[in-house]
Specification:
Length: 559
């Protein structure tokens, strides 16, 4: 017996020698490069699957996707890549079933730790015949196991003693599951007192689900009940659709230490020897591969259906968003056009300024306002608080429009009748508050800048006399304040603007009012942006399942 590093073997087996080994096996040729390419492409597409929406069945589909990836990574792809390596026979079972004792007895030497402490099997052991050294390749089983070569292993097979499936250590349970996924054949060990437990049947069902070859060892059977227990177990196997599973019965030999007598394990040993040899072991490998490949379509169909369900749910959510916002958008625009913002504090500020500073007291002759520059500068300063009030009022209005849109979206997605997946994309009040405030500030600044542009045009040398006189009478900032207040809905400010600007007043006010209405609608629409962005991902695109459907068609052509 020698412990062995398989890294060098892996390199040589994947070179010309490995390819030649595959070419010698007819079974390998019928599972040739085309199958490997399909499996590799399938692995890529399955790994790319995301299920972002929390809809019914998504968790189960994600678990199925992960297991399919494990099956591809730990068994199918490595095995398809190197068909000439030995068939991996995993000895698995529950705690205390006697796996390691059976394993050691088959080899005729204590190579795997066995004893009364639980968990007994702390380190997986992989043993192969020394004559198979040139075709052993590095893979899932070799990476987590202590690898040895041993004359007691029939050539063409590799025996792997796995940790307990029900180990108290989660790491052991995970390793056992990994090794079973990598196996070509499961040799499941249970006992006369444990074969009725749920675990053996769950594990065996899992093996059958992925098309693995399976055999069972019923260990420690009292001789006086051997016939009864064996008959009961065979019936259970038939009931589970496993009537073709080989069953080996090891009688109870009473308290003992060390190896079992060779005669006790002789049936299992003969069976392993029957599997030995390149052609026979490859037949097991190919049979398991075919079973695994045959099991893939149903898995891929399940994952593909889950992706389609995600796509459908995403479209329902998009439709809900599209239906929720138009009423809010129309309400926001109408509010601006009605001048709702001018009520309350803005009206009070206007009364204060006109009462104290009498900025509305102007003389107009011949349609042109008459004022000195000194008086114009005074009005400009007096209208400063009005400009600040307009900006504050409009900012609050825009923020309120965004809040109304936010509430409408949440009501549509997660209200009294929540939509599937809605919770994953519905806007969150805390997350949206700061961006909404920032957006409102930006819109107010841009709207005020638009008024400054209008005033700058009115003050140009080629502008109408009334326009240039209005800029002189109120100052640039003061006239901008009047325009903004009027556009926000102040009738008094609008009347003063029309008095001083004459024919140019309505065009300026219409442009500013329309611009503000557009910005109110934009505040509503921006609330949907993060929701739609969460739905505008490749995983929810209409063609997200196309790759899987293509792989499914390729698999079915291979069946």
């Amino acid at each position: 017996m020698r412990t062995r590093d398989v890294a060098t073997g892996a390199q040589s087996a994947t070179g010309p020698g490995g390819v030649a080994g595959r070419g010698r096996a007819e079974q390998g040729e019928e599972l040739g490069v085309t199958v490997f390419d399909v499996a590799r492409d399938l692995r890529r597409d399955v790994a790319a699957v995301e299920l972002p929406l929390a809809i019914d069945g998504a968790d189960e589909a994600a678990a199925s996707r992960d297991r399919l990836l494990t099956q591809l990574d730990e068994h199918l792809l490595p095995r398809l890549k190197e068909l000439s390596s030995p068939a991996v026979v995993v000895v698995a079972g529950s705690t205390g079933a006697g796996k390691s004792t059976l394993y050691n007895s088959l080899l005729g030497e204590e190579v795997s730790q066995a004893g009364v402490l639980r968990p007994t099997t702390r380190e997986p052991v992989l043993a192969f015949n020394p004559l198979d050294a040139d075709v052993i390749v590095e893979g899932p089983a070799t990476r987590v196991s202590r690898v040895i070569d041993h004359d007691g292993v029939p050539r063409g097979t590799a025996l792997l003693d796995a940790p307990d499936l029900d180990s108290l250590l989660s790491e052991n349970r995970e390793t056992a599951g990994l090794l079973l996924e990598a196996a070509d054949l499961w040799l499941f060990v249970t006992t006369a007192s444990r074969y009725g437990d749920a675990l053996p049947w769950k594990a065996l069902s899992r093996a059958m689900e992925r098309g693995a070859s399976v055999a069972m060892v019923l260990n420690r059977v009292p001789r006086e009940t051997l016939t009864t227990i064996r008959g009961d177990l065979l019936q259970r196997l038939r009931d589970h659709g496993m009537d073709g599973v080989p069953l080996f019965v090891v009688p109870d030999v009473g308290p003992h230490e060390g190896l079992l007598d060779r005669s006790v394990v002789a049936p299992v040993a003969r069976w392993l020897t029957m599997l030995a040899g390149p052609d026979r072991s490859r037949a097991v490998i190919v049979r398991t591969l075919k079973g695994s490949l045959a099991a893939l379509p149903s898995w891929v169909t399940g994952v593909s259906d889950a992706v389609e369900q995600q796509i459908e749910a995403a479209q329902v959510l998009r439709d809900a968003v599209a239906a929720a916002l138009p009423p809010v958008r129309a309400q926001a625009r109408e509010s601006v056009l009605r001048g709702d913002s001018s009520r309350g504090s803005l009206a009070a500020r206007w009364s204060q300024i006109t009462g104290a500073d009498k900025v509305d007291r102007v003389k107009v002759r011949g349609g042109v306002v008459r004022s000195t520059r000194r008086r114009g500068r005074a009005r400009d300063v007096a209208l400063g608080p009005l400009l600040a009030e307009v900006r504050a009022v409009v900012r609050r209005t825009l923020v309120a429009d965004g809040v109304l849109a936010h509430d409408a979206l949440r009501a549509a997605l997660v209200g009294t009748r929540p939509l599937p997946g809605g919770a994953a994309v519905a806007p969150d009040a805390e997350e949206t508050a700061d961006p909404r405030e920032t957006a409102a500030d930006r819109h107010v600044d841009e709207w005020a800048a638009r008024a400054d542009e209008v005033v700058a045009g009115l003050g140009r040398p080629d502008a109408a006399d009334a326009a240039r006189a209005a800029v002189k009478a109120f100052g640039e900032n003061g006239l901008a304040a009047l325009l903004l207040a009027a556009a926000a809905g102040s009738d008094d400010a609008a009347a003063l603007v029309r008095t001083t600007l004459a024919d140019t007043a309505d065009d300026a006010l219409t442009a500013l009012t329309s611009d503000l209405a557009d910005r109110a609608e934009a505040m509503v629409d921006r609330e949907a942006e993060p929701v739609l962005a969460a739905l505008d991902v490749p995983a929810l695109a209409p063609d997200a399942a196309v790759g899987l459907r293509l792989r499914l068609a390729e698999l079915r052509r291979l069946m």
